[in-house]
Structures are given as structure tokens and as C-alpha cells.
Specification:
Elements: H1 14-24, E1 28-29, E2 39-40, H2 42-60, E3 64-65, E4 71-73, H3 74-77, H4 81-87, E5 93-97, E6 100-108, H5 113-123, E7 132-141, E8 156-167, H6 170-190, E9 196-199, E10 211-218, E11 224-234, H7 236-241, E12 244-246, E13 252-254, E14 256-262, H8 265-274, E15 291-295, H9 302-318, E16 323-325, H10 332-341, E17 346-350, H11 352-357, E18 359-364, E19 369-373, H12 377-401, E20 404-406, H13 410-419, E21 421-426, H14 430-440, E22 443-451, E23 459-460, E24 467-474
Parallel strand pairs: 3-7, 15-16, 15-17, 20-21
Antiparallel strand pairs: 1-2, 4-6, 5-6, 7-8, 8-14, 9-10, 9-22, 10-11, 11-14, 12-13, 17-18, 18-19, 21-24, 22-24, 23-24
The structure holds '5'-O-(N-(L-alanyl)-sulfamoyl)adenosine and zinc ion (ZN).
């Protein structure tokens, strides 16, 4: 791989920093020769594995995992009018098998409603089959015309977790929406990524949904990134796909549905929020390597130091800690640089002097140096891992909180949107929204639902003076 020298661009030059850190930390290789498609390096893929294990653990509590085909026949894709309108510009079509033109063109799923719901129509017969709750983690394809970027705006989304649920009543579907929001908040809390939840305005909802609730975070350049969405689909799809059930009185009814999704944007947020001028900074829950041991091999006591390092590795591994011993024949400084770039939470150094003192030197990725008595290695490391995570969480929360401003007038909105998100009472009128958007360069994210970062406020619309509800405005990716 490339020579490991040179500094990253400073993180306050976020766009350059993001592009560089992806290859220097070996997350994604952007050199694949198709626009909008990128390659996971093994280290990036290992981060993905741990992140998605956490997501699966949460989903498995209330859903069954499944797997549907990638290809969707045109006649199914073309059934739901709003859905078609929302996606037709973004669909890749498979039209040939070898040299033969296909009788039925096949869409590469941009999302899987039209693959899954014809099957749901066969699976749902009576109220006893409900609720039905499934999810899959798959690749999806969207011919994005906006600027593509690794992990953020892809044409092949490689890690699309989509859940699809079916319920007897609209209210039950609504409580599923609320539960999904809670799971997403829990998931992002585990990644130390603070989020704001809002209900998208009608013009920005998912094609075919009754309404859409989105989970956003704020990136280091002040732009909001949508990192998850939960949609109440009502009976729009069940009407077009014939998903009906017989209720307990023998009456046929249309089912009510929800769907919700998260993509590898969750990893974009993880990397962008926590990283620093030296590279990735990962919470221990998702760090592929939680502890790296660097033996300091100077003078005559090499064998002794190596044995001590080996024993430390064994003890930590036996305690379930993901540990790596770096015995490459390169300078310790080069090893420090290497593992800092990759976000390893703790580096342990052991040399002759540490052995004599019966300790190990520990340096956390968040900058704290300490010594751990050899006999307390496991509890000492566990405590430090907890400290690193707590300090990552605090830093991210402080940072994002500082980017959210409650704005009482139009000028305040303009100012707030320069560095983050404005929280403003908006009356709900489209023309007031347009004025606010035009002046600030941001867009309405939606009506505030909840966040630990800011209280919802109501008041009067700064444009027309009518009563307004708490709304978020920001620039977006
Ligand atoms: N079927 C529902 C779940 C759905 O498709 N919803 S969605 O269109 O909103 O996508 C779910 C999430 O995927 C979005 O909230 C966004 O975080 C992410 N996403 C959408 N398009 C993306 C793209 N081109 N690249 C990366 N992530 C994307
Ligand atoms: Zn107004």
C-alpha cells in the first residue's frame, strides 16, 4: 500500500480531509472506474462489520432478517404512481440477457418496496399473519445526478438496511414508526453520533409515503446529513399490491405499512464527527482494533520485551478485547502514526523500563497518557476504553450543540445556517419557507420531533408573524 508519510489536511478543511482520510485510513478506495461506486478496503469493511452487527442486534429484537432479489420486473416497479415519479430518474434498467433483449425489462432495486410487496401480498392472509416485520441489508442502485461522494451519495449503496412492516391498523403502523425512531436513536447513541429527528415537509417525503420522519446529524462543515428515515406508508402500497387481510369479523381490509432505512452514511457520520487532524477516532464498540501493543525494542532486552508484549496480547484477547501486536520492523513512531490514522482507541507501549516498573504505558486516541499496573491490565484497559468513548461522545455533543441556534428573526436564521442548523417557529406556509430558504441558502429539514441537543420551541413565524411550530432549517448534503 502507499507510503505512510505526510499529514492529513486539517479537519477544518472538511471536504479535503474527508477525501484523504478515506484512503489514508484505508476505509474506501475511490479509484474504481465507475462513477459513484467505491471499494471497501478491509479496514473500512471491518468497521462496517462492527457497525452493522450493532444495527442487526437492534433489528433482530423485533424483526426477521430476509433477503429479496436485486432485480424487479418493470410491471411491478411501475405499479405505484408516486413511487415511480420519485424514482424513475434514478433507476438503472437491465434490458438484455447476453445478446437477447429481455421481454420484461428489470430494474436494479433503488429500494425494495416493489420487490417485497408482491410477495407480502401472498404471505398476508388474515389478521393472524400480522404484524409482519422484516428487514434486509443489501446493495441498492440509484442513478444519483447530484455530486457523488464515497459513503455519502453513492450510485451503488452497498449497505442499505431496509425494514418493511405490515400492520392491521394505521395506529399500529404509527407506533411502529415511533419504535423505529427510538431504535435509530439507540443505534446512533452507540456510535456517539448525536442526532435530530424531524418530520419532513410534505414536498420532501418518501415517494408513496403518508409522511416521513428523518434522522439528521450535522457534519463538520455545518451541513445536515440525513442518516436515516422512517416512513409511514399508510395503505398506498397495500392498495396497489393487494396486501389485504381478513379481520376477525371476516371482512377483507387493506393492510397499513411502514418502512425505514439506514445506509453507509452512518459510517460517514461516524468518521466525520469523531475524526481529527491525525485520522480516524473510533469508539471502542466499533473499532476493529481496540488496543494496539507496540513493543519498544531497544538494547539487549528484546526477547524479554517481546515475551511481555505477547503475554499482554494473550491476556487481553482472552478477556474479549480486540487486540493487535505490531511487531513490524519499523520505527515505533511510524507505528504510532499508522494506528492513530486508523482510529485505534488505545495504544499500549511496553519497553525495558516499563517491565522493571511492573507497568504498561497507555496512550488513548483522545490524547491521555497513563500507566497501568501489569497485574491490572484487563480492568485498566477496559476503564480506558470507556473513557475514550465518553470523551468522544462529549466532544461530538458539544460540537453539534454549538451548531444549533434558536433563531427569532430572519437575520438570525441566515446567520445560523452559515455554521449549522437554525431552529425557528415556522407557520407551515410554503411561501414563508421559500423566503427563509432563499435568504439563508438552507432548506427546511422538517418539523422538530425530538433531540437531546435542543428543546422544541414554538412562537411566531419570522416571515409572516403567524403562529409557528418548531422547525429546522439547514444546508444539506
Ligand atoms: N425504503 C425506504 C427505507 C427508503 O428507501 N428510504 S430513503 O430513500 O430515505 O433511504 C434511506 C436512507 O438511505 C436515507 O435516509 C439516506 O440516509 C440513505 N441514502 C439515500 N440515498 C443514498 C445514496 N445515494 N447514498 C447513500 N445513502 C443514501
Ligand atoms: Zn409564515
Amino acid at each position: 500500500m502507499e507510503e505512510e508519510t505526510g499529514a492529513l489536511p486539517a479537519k477544518n478543511d472538511f471536504s479535503s480531509w474527508f477525501n484523504e482520510v478515506l484512503w489514508r485510513a484505508e476505509v474506501m478506495d475511490v479509484r474504481y472506474p465507475v462513477k459513484g461506486l467505491y471499494v471497501w478496503f478491509p479496514h473500512g469493511f471491518a468497521i462496517r462489520k462492527h457497525v452493522y452487527e450493532r444495527l442487526r442486534e437492534i433489528m433482530d429484537r423485533d424483526h426477521q432478517e430476509t433477503l429479496f432479489p436485486l432485480l424487479i420486473p418493470e410491471h411491478e416497479f411501475m405499479k405505484e404512481a408516486e413511487h415511480i415519479k420519485g424514482f424513475e430518474e434514478e433507476v438503472y434498467w437491465v434490458t438484455h440477457g447476453g445478446k437477447n433483449q429481455l421481454d420484461v425489462p428489470l430494474a436494479l432495486r433503488p429500494t425494495s418496496e416493489t420487490a417485497i410487496y408482491p410477495m407480502y401480498a401472498l404471505w398476508v392472509r388474515s389478521h393472524a399473519d400480522l404484524p409482519l416485520k422484516m428487514y434486509q441489508v443489501v446493495n441498492t442502485f440509484r442513478y444519483e445526478t447530484k455530486h457523488t461522494r464515497p459513503l455519502i451519495r453513492l450510485r451503488e449503496i452497498t449497505s442499505f438496511k431496509e425494514a418493511h412492516t405490515v400492520h392491521a391498523t394505521w395506529e399500529e403502523a404509527e407506533s411502529q414508526v415511533r419504535a423505529a425512531i427510538e431504535w435509530y436513536i439507540e443505534f446512533y447513541t452507540g456510535l456517539c453520533v448525536p442526532v435530530i429527528v424531524s418530520r419532513r415537509p410534505d414536498w420532501d417525503k418518501f415517494p408513496g409515503a403518508d409522511y416521513t420522519v428523518a434522522v439528521d446529524t450535522i457534519m463538520p462543515d455545518g451541513r445536515a446529513l440525513q442518516i436515516g428515515t422512517v416512513h409511514h406508508l399508510g395503505d398506498h402500497f397495500s392498495q396497489t399490491f393487494g396486501i389485504t387481510y381478513e379481520d376477525d369479523k371476516g371482512v377483507q381490509r387493506y393492510a397499513q405499512q411502514t418502512c425505514y432505512g439506514i445506509s453507509e452514511r452512518c459510517i460517514a457520520a461516524l468518521i466525520s464527527l469523531h475524526g481529527d487532524d491525525h485520522g480516524l477516532v473510533l469508539p471502542s464498540s466499533v473499532a476493529p482494533v481496540q488496543v494496539v501493543i507496540v513493543p519498544i525494542l531497544i538494547g539487549k532486552r528484546r526477547a524479554e520485551v517481546n515475551t511481555a508484549a505477547e503475554m499482554m496480547e494473550q491476556v487481553l484477547r482472552a478477556a474479549g478485547i480486540r487486540v493487535k501486536r505490531d511487531i513490524r520492523e519499523i520505527r515505533p513512531g511510524a507505528k504510532y502514526y499508522h494506528w492513530e490514522m486508523r482510529g485505534v482507541p488505545i495504544r499500549l507501549e511496553v519497553g525495558p523500563r516499563d517491565i522493571d516498573a511492573g507497568v504498561v504505558s497507555a496512550v488513548t486516541r483522545t490524547g491521555d497518557r497513563s500507566t497501568i499496573p501489569r497485574g491490572d491490565l484487563v480492568p485498566g484497559v477496559q476503564a480506558l476504553l470507556g473513557q475514550v468513548t465518553a470523551s468522544i461522545k462529549k466532544r461530538a455533543t458539544d460540537e453539534i450543540r454549538s451548531r444549533i441556534t434558536v433563531a427569532g428573526n430572519v437575520d438570525d436564521v441566515v446567520l445560523a445556517v452559515q455554521t449549522g442548523i437554525a431552529v425557528v417557529p415556522w407557520c407551515g406556509e410554503r411561501r414563508c419557507a421559500e423566503l427563509l430558504e432563499e435568504k439563508s441558502g438552507g432548506s427546511i429539514l422538517g418539523m422538530y420531533v425530538r433531540s437531546e441537543l435542543v428543546e422544541g420551541i414554538d412562537g411566531v413565524c419570522p416571515v409572516c408573524g403567524q403562529k409557528g411550530c418548531c422547525t429546522l432549517i439547514g444546508r444539506t448534503f
